[in-house]
Specification:
With 196 residues, the chain is of the alpha/beta class. It contains 7 helices and 5 strands. A 5-stranded mixed β-sheet has the order 3-2-1-4-5, sandwiched between helices. It is globular and about 50 Å long. The termini are far apart. Keywords: Exonuclease, Hydrolase, Lyase, Nuclease.
Protein backbone atom coordinates (compact mmCIF):
# COMPACT_ATOMS: atom_id res chain seq x y z
CA UNK A 1 0.00 0.00 0.00
CA UNK A 2 1.34 3.45 -0.91
CA UNK A 3 1.97 5.86 1.95
CA UNK A 4 -0.26 8.93 2.18
CA UNK A 5 2.76 11.04 3.10
CA UNK A 6 3.94 13.37 0.33
CA UNK A 7 7.07 12.80 -1.70
CA UNK A 8 10.02 14.85 -0.47
CA UNK A 9 12.37 15.80 -3.29
CA UNK A 10 15.83 15.88 -1.73
CA UNK A 11 18.15 18.02 -3.81
CA UNK A 12 21.65 16.57 -3.56
CA UNK A 13 24.94 18.19 -4.51
CA UNK A 14 28.43 16.72 -4.38
CA UNK A 15 31.89 18.19 -4.62
CA UNK A 16 34.65 15.71 -5.50
CA UNK A 17 38.37 15.74 -6.23
CA UNK A 18 38.17 13.57 -9.34
CA UNK A 19 35.84 12.10 -11.97
CA UNK A 20 34.72 8.85 -10.29
CA UNK A 21 34.33 7.49 -6.76
CA UNK A 22 36.82 4.98 -5.44
CA UNK A 23 40.04 6.13 -7.04
CA UNK A 24 38.94 9.67 -6.13
CA UNK A 25 36.99 11.14 -3.23
CA UNK A 26 33.74 12.90 -2.52
CA UNK A 27 34.86 15.80 -0.34
CA UNK A 28 31.54 17.44 0.50
CA UNK A 29 27.85 16.55 0.37
CA UNK A 30 24.85 18.84 0.64
CA UNK A 31 21.14 17.99 0.72
CA UNK A 32 18.05 20.20 0.87
CA UNK A 33 14.35 19.45 0.58
CA UNK A 34 12.51 21.26 -2.22
CA UNK A 35 9.88 23.57 -0.76
CA UNK A 36 11.26 23.16 2.77
CA UNK A 37 14.26 25.49 3.22
CA UNK A 38 14.36 24.50 6.91
CA UNK A 39 15.36 20.92 6.01
CA UNK A 40 19.03 20.81 5.01
CA UNK A 41 22.12 18.68 5.58
CA UNK A 42 25.81 19.39 4.93
CA UNK A 43 28.99 17.52 5.63
CA UNK A 44 32.56 17.50 4.47
CA UNK A 45 34.37 14.17 4.13
CA UNK A 46 37.91 12.98 4.68
CA UNK A 47 39.39 11.87 1.33
CA UNK A 48 39.53 8.09 0.88
CA UNK A 49 42.55 7.92 -1.45
CA UNK A 50 45.78 9.73 -2.19
CA UNK A 51 44.74 10.42 -5.78
CA UNK A 52 43.15 13.70 -6.81
CA UNK A 53 42.83 15.95 -9.83
CA UNK A 54 44.00 19.46 -8.91
CA UNK A 55 41.52 21.15 -11.26
CA UNK A 56 38.61 19.17 -9.79
CA UNK A 57 39.71 19.95 -6.24
CA UNK A 58 40.02 23.66 -7.08
CA UNK A 59 36.33 23.87 -8.09
CA UNK A 60 35.16 23.52 -4.48
CA UNK A 61 37.88 25.65 -2.93
CA UNK A 62 38.21 23.11 -0.12
CA UNK A 63 41.62 22.53 1.46
CA UNK A 64 42.45 18.84 1.06
CA UNK A 65 45.05 18.88 3.84
CA UNK A 66 42.48 20.34 6.25
CA UNK A 67 39.95 17.67 5.22
CA UNK A 68 42.51 14.94 5.90
CA UNK A 69 43.08 16.36 9.38
CA UNK A 70 39.62 17.51 10.43
CA UNK A 71 36.76 16.12 8.31
CA UNK A 72 34.65 13.16 9.40
CA UNK A 73 35.56 9.82 7.89
CA UNK A 74 33.47 8.68 4.94
CA UNK A 75 31.72 6.14 7.18
CA UNK A 76 30.87 8.79 9.80
CA UNK A 77 29.69 11.30 7.20
CA UNK A 78 27.58 8.84 5.19
CA UNK A 79 26.06 7.31 8.33
CA UNK A 80 25.00 10.82 9.41
CA UNK A 81 23.63 11.50 5.91
CA UNK A 82 21.63 8.25 5.91
CA UNK A 83 20.24 9.02 9.37
CA UNK A 84 19.15 12.48 8.17
CA UNK A 85 17.39 11.08 5.08
CA UNK A 86 15.72 8.33 7.10
CA UNK A 87 14.63 10.88 9.72
CA UNK A 88 12.58 12.63 7.04
CA UNK A 89 10.37 9.56 6.63
CA UNK A 90 8.13 10.74 9.47
CA UNK A 91 7.04 13.70 7.28
CA UNK A 92 7.39 12.33 3.74
CA UNK A 93 8.84 9.85 1.28
CA UNK A 94 12.42 10.79 0.29
CA UNK A 95 13.16 10.98 -3.46
CA UNK A 96 16.68 11.65 -4.72
CA UNK A 97 17.01 14.76 -6.91
CA UNK A 98 20.16 16.05 -8.62
CA UNK A 99 21.44 18.07 -11.56
CA UNK A 100 22.91 16.01 -13.10
CA UNK A 101 21.66 12.89 -11.38
CA UNK A 102 24.33 10.80 -13.16
CA UNK A 103 27.27 12.67 -11.58
CA UNK A 104 25.96 13.28 -8.08
CA UNK A 105 24.08 10.00 -7.97
CA UNK A 106 27.18 8.03 -8.94
CA UNK A 107 29.13 9.38 -5.96
CA UNK A 108 26.27 9.32 -3.45
CA UNK A 109 25.11 5.79 -4.27
CA UNK A 110 28.66 4.39 -4.30
CA UNK A 111 29.48 6.05 -0.98
CA UNK A 112 26.27 4.91 0.71
CA UNK A 113 26.73 1.31 -0.43
CA UNK A 114 30.46 1.25 0.35
CA UNK A 115 30.34 2.91 3.77
CA UNK A 116 26.81 2.28 5.08
CA UNK A 117 25.95 -0.96 3.28
CA UNK A 118 22.89 0.39 1.45
CA UNK A 119 21.40 3.65 0.21
CA UNK A 120 18.45 5.32 1.94
CA UNK A 121 17.30 6.18 -1.60
CA UNK A 122 16.81 2.50 -2.48
CA UNK A 123 18.73 -0.38 -4.02
CA UNK A 124 19.46 1.45 -7.28
CA UNK A 125 19.88 4.93 -5.83
CA UNK A 126 17.69 6.22 -8.63
CA UNK A 127 15.84 9.50 -8.59
CA UNK A 128 14.92 12.65 -10.49
CA UNK A 129 17.26 14.43 -12.89
CA UNK A 130 16.43 18.14 -13.24
CA UNK A 131 17.30 18.39 -16.93
CA UNK A 132 15.33 15.27 -17.89
CA UNK A 133 12.35 16.48 -15.86
CA UNK A 134 12.50 19.87 -17.62
CA UNK A 135 12.61 18.16 -21.03
CA UNK A 136 9.46 16.23 -20.20
CA UNK A 137 7.68 19.24 -18.74
CA UNK A 138 8.46 21.72 -21.52
CA UNK A 139 9.26 19.61 -24.58
CA UNK A 140 12.70 21.27 -24.72
CA UNK A 141 15.70 19.70 -26.37
CA UNK A 142 18.57 18.69 -24.10
CA UNK A 143 20.64 21.72 -25.13
CA UNK A 144 17.94 24.01 -23.65
CA UNK A 145 17.95 22.35 -20.22
CA UNK A 146 21.05 23.73 -18.53
CA UNK A 147 20.33 24.85 -14.98
CA UNK A 148 21.19 28.45 -15.85
CA UNK A 149 18.67 28.39 -18.69
CA UNK A 150 16.00 26.88 -16.46
CA UNK A 151 16.64 29.51 -13.78
CA UNK A 152 16.38 32.27 -16.38
CA UNK A 153 13.08 30.93 -17.73
CA UNK A 154 11.71 30.71 -14.17
CA UNK A 155 12.85 34.24 -13.31
CA UNK A 156 15.28 33.02 -10.64
CA UNK A 157 17.96 35.64 -11.26
CA UNK A 158 19.22 35.94 -7.68
CA UNK A 159 19.88 32.25 -6.96
CA UNK A 160 23.65 31.73 -7.26
CA UNK A 161 25.65 28.57 -7.95
CA UNK A 162 28.69 28.71 -5.66
CA UNK A 163 30.25 25.21 -5.81
CA UNK A 164 29.61 24.85 -2.07
CA UNK A 165 27.69 21.58 -1.79
CA UNK A 166 25.29 22.86 0.87
CA UNK A 167 24.53 26.09 -0.97
CA UNK A 168 24.20 24.36 -4.33
CA UNK A 169 21.81 21.77 -2.88
CA UNK A 170 19.68 24.66 -1.56
CA UNK A 171 19.87 26.29 -5.01
CA UNK A 172 18.65 23.11 -6.71
CA UNK A 173 15.86 22.69 -4.14
CA UNK A 174 14.68 26.23 -4.88
CA UNK A 175 14.85 25.68 -8.64
CA UNK A 176 12.94 22.40 -8.48
CA UNK A 177 10.31 23.89 -6.19
CA UNK A 178 9.78 26.62 -8.81
CA UNK A 179 9.61 23.95 -11.55
CA UNK A 180 6.93 22.07 -9.61
CA UNK A 181 4.95 25.28 -9.11
CA UNK A 182 5.08 25.94 -12.86
CA UNK A 183 3.75 22.48 -13.65
CA UNK A 184 0.15 22.61 -14.81
CA UNK A 185 -2.24 20.56 -12.66
CA UNK A 186 -3.52 17.59 -14.58
CA UNK A 187 -7.24 17.25 -14.82
CA UNK A 188 -8.62 13.85 -14.06
CA UNK A 189 -9.73 12.22 -17.24
CA UNK A 190 -13.43 11.55 -17.27
CA UNK A 191 -14.48 8.05 -18.28
CA UNK A 192 -15.52 7.72 -21.91
CA UNK A 193 -19.22 7.95 -22.63
CA UNK A 194 -20.90 4.61 -23.14
CA UNK A 195 -21.86 3.77 -26.70
CA UNK A 196 -25.62 3.42 -27.24
Amino acid sequence: MTSTLPELYIAVDVEADGPIPGPYSMISLGMAVAGRPDLTFYTELRPISDEFVPAALAVSGLDRDRLLREAPTAQEAMSAAAAWVNGLRRVGRPVFLAAPAVWDGMFVHWYFVRFVGHSPFGATGSGVDLRSYWMGLTGSEWVRTRKGTIKHELGLHDVPHTHHAGEDAAELAQVFDAVLRRRQPTEEASPPAEQA
